[in-house]
Amino acid sequence: MSAFPWGVVVMFLALGLGFALAGLWWWVLFLGGLAFWLGVVEVLAVRRTGLTISGQFLAWARRHPWAAAALAALLGGAMGYLIYHLATGY
């Protein structure tokens, strides 16, 4: 497995391109700021705990599977609604 998160980089590039093509230039700036902030938080998490944020969540999820399932469902629903809202305006 590659140490560089190519999937995350490609995801942010695709989102940025989509926003730019849609004329939402300010979302490109927001996305860049968000990517930078997430990178800083990830580096700090690895330095402090030795685990990525995903690794910390998985370690917690093994101890609390029902709570992790509920949290994952809430986050998935929130992201789904965000995409729906951005696509439709509702």
Describe this structure in words.
- With 90 residues, this protein is an all-alpha fold.
- The chain is 84% helix and 0% strand.
- The protein has four helices and no strands.
- It has helices spanning 6-21, 25-49, 53-63, 65-88.
- Helix 3 packs across helix 4 (65-88).
- The chain is flat, with a radius of gyration of 16 Å.
- The mean pLDDT is 87.
List the helices and strands and how they pair.
Layout: H1 6-21, H2 25-49, H3 53-63, H4 65-88
What is the structure about, briefly put?
This protein is mainly alpha-helical. The chain has 4 helices and no strands.
Features:
90 residues
Looking at how many chains there are and whether they match, the oligomeric state comes to: single chain
Gyration radius (Cα, Å) is 16 Å
Poorly predicted residue ranges = none
As a percent range, the share of helical residues equals: over 70%
Order of helices and strands: HHHH
Number of strands: 0
Tell me the distance between the termini: 40 Å
Query: How large is the share of residues in beta strands?
Result: under 5%
The secondary structure category is mainly alpha
Mean pLDDT: 87
